[in-house]
Design goal:
With about 100 residues, the protein is mainly alpha-helical. About 65% of the residues lie in helices and about 0% in strands.
């Protein structure tokens, strides 16, 4: 269950940006957005001041100019180490 409607809305914004502005391939974009939704949800990424969070992210995207930089940006915004911990069965990483 998604804790915040903002996760869905902002994930879709990033999906559309990846698809149309950065021309990310469908397979790569799908995987990146799935990780984005998953980690945004379990880490309550948009639970406190979501407008400020997304405003900062959109400002940071001004320095992103191609597909690889866009994917690197998405990865840099999420706690990737926790992602691997969770996949390996360490559910305390989601706290």
């Amino acid at each position: 269950m998604v804790r915040s409607n903002y996760v869905v809305v902002y994930s879709y914004v990033f999906y559309l940006m990846g698809k149309y502005e950065y021309k990310v391939s469908p397979f790569v974009l799908r995987n990146a957005i799935i990780r984005w939704i998953f980690m945004s949800t379990i880490k309550s990424f948009y639970s406190s001041s979501p407008e400020s969070t997304v405003e900062r992210q959109l400002a940071d995207l001004r320095n992103v100019h191609n597909t690889d930089e866009f994917i690197a940006f998405l990865v840099s915004q999420l706690p990737v180490a926790n992602w691997y911990d969770i996949l390996n069965g360490n559910t305390t990483a989601a706290d």
